[in-house]
Amino acid sequence: MKKKVLFWFCLLLIIPSMASAHTELKSSVPASGQIVTGDLNEIVLTFAGEIESLSTMTLVMDGKEVPLSTVKPEGDKMIGTLSSALNEGSYTIHWEIAGEDGHQITGEIPFTVQLEEKAEQNTEATEPDSQKEEPNEQATAAEEPSSNMFMNILIPVISLLVLGAGLYLLFGRKRH
C-alpha cells in the first residue's frame, strides 16, 4: 500500500513540472539586428504562448527611453505603437512578460534605423548586386534565445531524477 501511495505522489509531483513550458519569444518586427529603412509604425513581438496583461516593453536609443503611445498584450502578441517617426540610430527593445505559467521572462532586441538613401549607398559600397538581401522581417527563437533556457532544461532533468528515485524506491529494492 505504501508503495502505491509513494508512486502516485511522485507521479503527481512530476507530471505538472514536465508539462509546464516557459513562454519564449518566437518572432519580432523589427527582427533582431535588422536595419529598418522605412517608416516603422509599430513593434510586434510574438511569443510561443499567451502572455499576461502585466507584460510590457520599452524602446531605448542611446540610453534614453523613446516614448511609445501604447503597449498592449493581445493573446500571444505584444504590440507597441510608436508616437512618432524614429530618427536614424541604434535602438533596443527591452521586453518583460509574464507567461501563462506565471514566470517573468525578459529579453532585448537590437535593431537599427537607417534612411533608405543612406542604406542603399552603404549596401552598394560593401556588397555586389548578387549578394544583396532584403532584411528578415521575423526573428526566430534561435536568433533571440530565451532568458530562461537554463530553467527549461533544469526542470525536466530534476523531474526525471525524482521519478527515477521514486520508481527505484518502489520497485528497485529487494527485501530479505
Task: Describe this protein's structure.
This protein has 176 residues and is an alpha+beta fold. It has three helices and nine strands, in the order H-E-E-E-E-E-E-E-E-E-H-H. It folds into two domains: 1-22 and 148-176; 24-144, Sandwich (Immunoglobulin-like), CATH 2.60.40.1220. The strands form two sheets. A five-stranded mixed β-sheet has the order 2-9-8-4-5, with no helix packed on it. The chain has a four-stranded antiparallel β-sheet with strand order 1-3-7-6, with no helix packed on it. Helix 1 (2-19) runs antiparallel to helix 3. The longest helix has 24 residues, at 149-172. The chain starts with a helix and ends with a helix.
Summarize the structure.
By secondary structure, the chain is α+β, with helices and mostly antiparallel strands. The chain is 30% helix and 31% strand.
Query: Could you say what the CATH architecture of the largest domain is?
Result: Sandwich
The overall strand count is 9
The percent range for helix content is 25-40%
**Rg, Å, rounded:** 23 Å
Low-confidence stretches: 128-148
Beta percentage is 25-35%
Count of DSSP helices?
3
- Give the CATH topology of the largest domain: Immunoglobulin-like
Secondary-structure element string: HEEEEEEEEEHH
